Amino acid sequence: MVVRADGSTVGAVSGGCLEADIVARAAELLVSDTPELAHYDTRGSDDDVLGLGLGCRGVLDVQLNPLSGDALNDAIAELAALRERTAVRLLVCGGGTDAIPVVRLASEVGWLVTVVDHRPSFATTSRFRDAERVLRLDVAREPDALAESLALERFSAAISMAHAATHDRAYLHALLGVPTLRYLGVLGPRRRTMELLDGAPHAVPADLPANVYAPIGLDLGAETPEEIALAIVSEIAAVLGGRTAVSLRERRGPIHWNR
Length: 259
Prior knowledge:
The chain is an alpha/beta fold. 32% of the residues lie in helices and 16% in strands. The model has no long low-confidence stretch (mean pLDDT 88).
């Protein structure tokens, strides 16, 4: 986590338990210009630890380092490189109204989102302010346009939601053989997706490929575009995390584990 001089922050070190105290310590740290090791023992009751109501029942040591000048610039560069290596990249094919909350929510989660659409009025940065990139490509007319315009191997998830069979088919055929795509979601009924896959390379005629999810999204009872976006982003997160999406109350082991 980075704490700016004005008290605003970027990132976090916990689920929200420690941040307020760290921000308070940071103000003094910037004045003293001396590193500090903050020790938190949360094994007591909620009110025993700094009155923060932690309740996490563990022990944490947080190294606090004042940064300025070259050290600050180096840290910013290191964080940018880390994000580049670890951030999920999502490709959204289709810029309809229902794609807007998907892009917004995925961006808020911290993913890097690229939007592709063939319509000039839809493929605009003003429409998708949260996207990293917005491209106007007509893959139905130019099947190689995706591969020529994007490094597809950098994406771990993609969604086809063009609302037009011609374009959804083109997106699917272009993306199906990308080895890094662990999730390829398709909006619409399963039968429609099977028809779109007809003749596609790497497709098994009798069933959906292992990385293709249709109908798209978790079964949350979603109706509105925002609810559907939540179902889609949640399913992608579960697949990329190697989890079966169930309520945490059903788990009998720890909720965090090494992947």
